[in-house]
Design the sequence.
């Protein structure tokens, strides 16, 4: 009985080039037996078939192993064609001579000599056929390598963009925590707890390409609760979730740059009357996110350090959306005199 390990070893063995080539030539030989024999096979006839197979293999492997890499791959097309013709021209009389020896009667010998041009053409077509298959195989390999390279490049870029989001968020949060510590606020320990929960998610649970939507929502809830604590509970911060969030998956850390932006450029400068409203509607395979934040009537002339850090997060999240959800999202960012609005429509997977 074959166990699973033996089965996988057989699969790996079957994928080796020398095994594939061996199976191919065995099939060719079997086809020659089926096509060329109407009666009982003799030793002499078997020898003739083996001679044919050997010369087919010679022209194919000399072509694949020497002529193509040495001349065709180096763009020396005319030299390649001339050498291919020369190789077939040399092998044709040798093959005819060996087959000639296997016949005793004069008639088949004469037919063999008269049909040398047919043998030449057949050998040339077989060698040329191997060239065509090699070109197709190399093209397919090039396409696979190109696709793999593009995939690795995209994955590296996504990881780089996500790595920029994490320290950007941490930088802003530590600035706020530092300010509360200076004021000896009782809210500082609770913010540390919320921050530790969020960092645990960012470090250990968000490394996958997709995470459960439920975890991403929990992350948003922790962020908004932390902001509420940081701003002493005075601003109007609301989160409304509509629909089922237990089955879908989503790319991690997509929404936090939008939330950061809503606080950094809005609520942080109007603590008493400002607001941030987050509304998420979840359908079977679609998510709608709307974030509305109030704008201050006038921005400060000397903005704090966290505001000077710029829009790294928003630029990155738009790039991540393009990479992870090509043609599967719609992002609109608008503003008027009193509000800044983000609307995101995103395809979901289960």
Sequence:
């Amino acid at each position: 009985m074959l166990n699973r390990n033996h089965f996988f070893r057989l699969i790996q063995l079957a994928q080796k080039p020398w095994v594939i080539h061996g199976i191919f030539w065995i099939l060719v030989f079997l086809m020659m037996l089926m096509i060329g024999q109407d009666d009982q096979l003799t030793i002499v006839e078997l020898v003739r078939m083996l001679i044919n197979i050997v010369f087919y293999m010679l022209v194919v492997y000399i072509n694949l192993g020497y002529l193509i890499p040495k001349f065709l791959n180096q763009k020396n097309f005319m030299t390649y064609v001339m050498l291919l013709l020369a190789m077939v021209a040399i092998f044709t009389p040798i093959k005819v001579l060996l087959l000639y020896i296997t016949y005793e009667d004069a008639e088949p010998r004469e037919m063999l000599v008269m049909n040398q041009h047919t043998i030449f053409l057949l050998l040339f077509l077989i060698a040329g056929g191997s060239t065509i298959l090699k070109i197709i195989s190399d093209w397919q390999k090039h396409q696979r390598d190109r696709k793999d390279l593009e995939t690795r490049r995209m994955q590296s870029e996504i990881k780089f963009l996500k790595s920029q989001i994490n320290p950007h968020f941490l930088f802003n949060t530590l600035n706020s925590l530092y300010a509360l510590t200076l004021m000896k606020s009782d809210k500082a320990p609770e913010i540390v707890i919320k921050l530790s929960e969020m960092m645990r998610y960012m470090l250990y649970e968000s490394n996958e390409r997709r995470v459960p939507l439920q975890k991403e929502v929990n992350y948003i809830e922790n962020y908004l609760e932390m902001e509420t604590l940081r701003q002493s509970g005075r601003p109007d911060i609301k989160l409304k979730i509509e629909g089922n969030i237990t089955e879908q998956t989503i790319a991690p850390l997509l929404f936090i740059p939008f939330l950061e932006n809503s606080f950094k450029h809005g609520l942080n400068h109007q603590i008493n009357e400002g607001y941030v409203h987050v509304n998420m509607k979840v359908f079977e395979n679609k998510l709608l996110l709307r974030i509305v934040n109030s704008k201050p009537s006038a921005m400060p002339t000397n903005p704090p350090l966290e505001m000077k850090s710029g829009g790294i997060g928003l630029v990155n999240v738009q790039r991540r959306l393009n990479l992870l959800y090509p043609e599967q999202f719609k992002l609109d960012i608008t503003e008027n005199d009193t509000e800044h609005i983000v609307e995101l429509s995103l395809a979901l997977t289960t």
Observations:
- Residues 301-310 have pLDDT under 50 and may be disordered.
- Strands lie at 211-212, 236-242, 249-250, 275-282, 286-294, 329-335, 339-347.
- The longest strand covers residues 286-294.
